[in-house]
Structures are given as structure tokens and as C-alpha cells.
Amino acid sequence: AQSVTQLDSQVPVFEEAPVELRCNYSSSVSVYLFWYVQYPNQGLQLLLKYLSGSTLVKGINGFEAEFNKSQTSFHLRKPSVHISDTAEYFCAVRFLEGSARQLTFGSGTQLTVLP
Amino acid sequence: GAVVSQHPSWVICKSGTSVKIECRSLDFQATTMFWYRQFPKQSLMLMATSNEGSKATYEQGVEKDKFLINHASLTLSTLTVTSAHPEDSSFYICSARWSTYEQYFGPGTRLTVT
Q1: Which of residues 29-48 of A touch B (CB under 8 A)?
Q2: Cβ–Cβ gap B44/A105 under 8 Å
Q3: Contact A32/B44, CB-based, under 8 Å?
Q4: How far is Cα B20 from Cα B8, in angstroms, rounded to an integer?
Q5: B87 φ, ψ (degrees, to nearest 5)
Q6: 3-state class (DSSP) for residue A84
Q7: A32, A43, A103: residue with CB nearest B106
Q8: Burial per residue of A16-42, b for 16 or more beta-carbon CB atoms within 10 angstroms, e otherwise
Q9: Among candidates A97, A6, A11, A90, which has minimal Cα distance to A49?
Q10: How far apart are the CA of B17 and the nearest CA of chain A, in angstroms?
Q11: Cα(first)–Cα(last) distance of chain B, in Å?
Q12: B57 — contact with chain A (CB < 8 Å)?
């Protein structure tokens, strides 16, 4: 079965510390991978995406993620977080089979940056 | 980047009434639009997928007669919640896609049914 798992529902971290938000997926087919950020009462904003090519992708706001095919993971990282990074982060996967090819979302990780 | 708007951003309605939410792609033509529902502290759940000019495809468990979706043009889709009840209170987010790769999300609509 195809699924997306975000292992940590909440991640508290101090300002200027590094952070990693974990995402794993289960699939036997090729995938496109995405990370989105959601601020309170707002829609989703795309942080970065992996479609093909280099497995290390850089996104907006200093975030990056690495696609690891053997471990079926796409963890999000930032070397130094700011208070303004406090938000909900969603990993999403598009499984490349079927006609619809909809996005499947993980359950989300609440990142809280502490002063 | 591509922009998707939703209107209204927040609506309160009485139980038993209907409410319409609009989703527009402002600077691109969306071949496919999606409607999601999000409960507090939870992820997005896909409700339906619609292609311009054709009937929406609803996910299992979503009542098509209650959540009417119309995708009349390449830039506009509407979601009508008919005979709304308090359990329909939620955050509704639309998304639009013009290519295989990426979806753009609207800012969401907070529906409160009293």
C-alpha cells in the first residue's frame, strides 16, 4: 500500500539550532516528493520539491531536503531556524501510477521555534 | 508564482442553510482542481477532484449530494455545502494544477456552522 509517514507530530527547537523533520513513504512505483508549510489559518505554501535529478534539493527560506531512494525518505532540514519558521509542515508524495496521480499528505509536523 | 484565491476566507452560517465557496486560479488555467478538508491539528483530506467541464470525482465517504462541486471554467471551481450542519464546520482548501508536477493551494476558507 502507498502511504506517507511523518514520524514526529511535534518538534520543539531553540532559535538558531538546526532541525530535521522526517518523512518516509511506502511505494513500489516512482514518486514525486514535496514539502509544504502551513501558517495558522492559511493555505499551503510549497517549500521545495523533488522530481528527478540531484537528490539534494534546496527550497525557500533556507530549507533543503534529501531524497533517499533506498530508505524511501525525504527528510527536511534547516541549519539554523528562526522564530518565524514556527508552523505546520507537511510532506506530500505523488505516486506515479494511475490517471489521477493525486498528492498524498503526511499527518504533519508542528515545528515550534523557542526563543 | 501561480496564485490561487478563495472566497470567502471565513464564513458563518446557520444549520440547514447552504454556503458556496469559490476557488480561482488568478494567473494560470487550471486543468484540474482539488478540494480538501482539514480538521484542527490534522492533515488535509482530499474530498474531490474536478476537471473543467466534467463531473467531479469524489473520494470514498464524501457525499456528492452534500458537497456540490462545479468546475465551469479553467479558472473557477466552486464548492457548495448544502444543508450545512455543525459537523461540516472545518477548514476547506482548494488546489489547482496545470501541469503534472505541481499543485498550487488557496489560502483556505474557514466554515463555521452554528
Answers
A1: 32, 34, 36, 41-46
A2: yes
A3: no
A4: 9
A5: -70, -10
A6: helix
A7: A43
A8: eeebebbbbbebeeebbbbbbbbeeeb
A9: A90
A10: 24
A11: 37
A12: yes
**How far does the CA of residue B96 sit from the closest CA of chain A (Å)?**
12
Tens digit of each residue's pLDDT, chain B (114 residues): 688 999 999 999 999 999 999 999 998 888 899 999 998 888 899 999 998 878 899 999 999 999 999 988 889 999 999 999 999 999 999 999 877 677 899 999 999 999
Cell numbers representing residue B65 in the block: 449530494
A83 CB within 8 Å of a chain B CB? no
Q: Is the peptide bond before A12 cis (omega within 30 degrees of 0)?
A: no
Give Dmax (Cα) for chain B: 39
Whose cell is 539554523? That residue is A80
